[in-house]
Write a structure and sequence with these properties.
Length: 213
Amino acid sequence: MLFCFFIGVFSVEYTLKSAYGRNWLLIFNHDLVNGQYFTDLNQTMLNFEVSRYSLFGLLNQKFKTSGYYEFLLEYPEIVGCNQWRQSLLPWEDTEVIGKQAIGYTPINISWTNNFWGGLVKSNNHYTQVYNSLTLLDGSAGNDYWYYSIGCVRPSTNWSPDIPGPSSRVKKAKLWLRLDNKYLLNLQSLPPSFSKKYCILLLTSLLWLSKGDM
């Protein structure tokens, strides 16, 4: 389900869906079939291109559900998904060798190989050796960078793809759980806003809606 509003001269499209008994907002999409790698790490935090899409920079703790962020990771070319909770937004949880994402709690996990343990801010261990660069990876607590999210540069052996759970992929989607009350508010909003209101939209309305629960 798609919804649009305008930030300055940019039309921003939000994608919502229901799956696994939850309502989800698409917060990241990378499609190398129809697009390119991200230009830099800043672009991985907020970008509205369809094939390089990220809302990371608009999210904060108001998006928690029962004290956790709940995520759904999908690779359209692979059957399955990973659904889990963690305490911090991934880019705020710097990778520590030997440790999973803080508060990692599995819910529905299809892939556990290559040290899966939630998403964390990658330590980019292989940057100096292979010149690879990614914002996040799911090989939490290990120097591998499988489950790459926000790839800026692949290493030579992964180009022109990105690391999925264990093999090459060209597409990755990350969804964030939304509660029903917030989803209803989002659906009822008019299509156009001022720039200031748009930036606050995803952070303030969730807080306002909770007052009616």
